[in-house]
Known about the structure:
GPI-anchor_lipid_remodeler; 6-stranded mixed beta sheet; catalytic activity; Endo/exonuclease/phosphatase; 29% strand; globular; Endonuclease/exonuclease/phosphatase domain-containing protein; alpha+beta; Endo/exonu/phosph_ase_sf; Deoxyribonuclease I, Chain A
Amino acid sequence: MSFKIGLWNVHSFQDGGCRISGLEQASFLSKHDLDIVALIEVRRNNSQISDLELDLFADYSDNFSSKKRQTDLEYFANILESDFRFTPYYDDFGIAIFSKYKILHFASERIETNAIGGARCVYMATIQLNPNNQKHEQKETNEQNQKQKEGEEYETIDVFGTHLDHIKEQSRLVQMRIIWKFIKKNKRSKKYVLLGDFNCLSSSDHYPKEEWDRITEVRLDNSWEKPKCSLYNYITKKGFFDTWEYRNPKIRKNQGTCRFNTRIDYVFASKSLVTQNEKSQVVGYDKVETNLSDHHLIIVKFQNYKNSEQN
Length: 311
C-alpha cells in the first residue's frame, strides 16, 4: 500500500500577511488527500474562523453543525476527516498531527532550555497502516478482527514531530539532542519519520554564493546568526534520510519551503522506511507552493512493502 504524509507550518492559521486563513488552509489540505498531516504553529483552544464562515464550513463536512463553535483544530479534523493530537510549546500554542488512520499511541515532551526563542516540544504518534484503507472512524469488520486475533496485525509507523528554535543553531542542537533521546526511548517501529520546521539549512542544497550571501543578509536583518548546517549534519549522522535529498539528488533550484526561499522544513525517514529489498519506498516528494501561509506544503509519498528485515 502507499500513503502520503504532509508537513505544513500554518503560521497560526494566517497567511504571510497575517490575514486569517484557517478555513482556506483546511480546504487546501483536503484537496491533497493526505493520510497523515503534521501542522506547525497551531493554536488549540481558540478559533480564528469567523461566525460568517461557519455556514461555508458546513459545505465541507456533512457532520458539522454551523451552530456549534469549534476550535481551529476541530475544524481541520472535520474537513480532513481525521483524528488528531496536539502538544504545546506553551499555553495553547504548539504542533499537531492529523491521521486518517488509527493513532494507537501518542506521547509528547516539552523541551525547556535556555534558548532565546523559548520552549519547544516533540511528539510521537504510532499510526496503524490499514491496507484495506479503513479510516480511523470506521469500524473493523469481523474478518479484520479475526485476523488480528490470529496475530496478523497491520503494520505501524512512528511519526515524530517538532519545531526548533528560530534564532541560534546551538540552541537547535541542544533541543535536537533531547529529541534524539526521546526518539530512542519511545520508538516502537523500525519504520519512523522525523518531521517539522527545523529552522536549519543543509549544505547539500548547494546554494550559489550570491544566494548564500542573500540568506546571510536576511538573517542578520532579523537579528539571527549567520547560516549554519551543523544541525542537519547531526540529524543525518543519526541514520535519518532526508526524503527531499533522496528523491531529488541532482535538483538544486527552487527547494525553498518558507518566505525567505530557504529549505528549513524537512521530512526525515529511517532506513526501513526509505529502502526495502533494494526497492525505494520514497516514491514521491512534492513542494506545493501557496500564499495561505508563510511556508509551503510538503508532501512525501511512501510505498510500503511488508515484512522488512532492515533497521
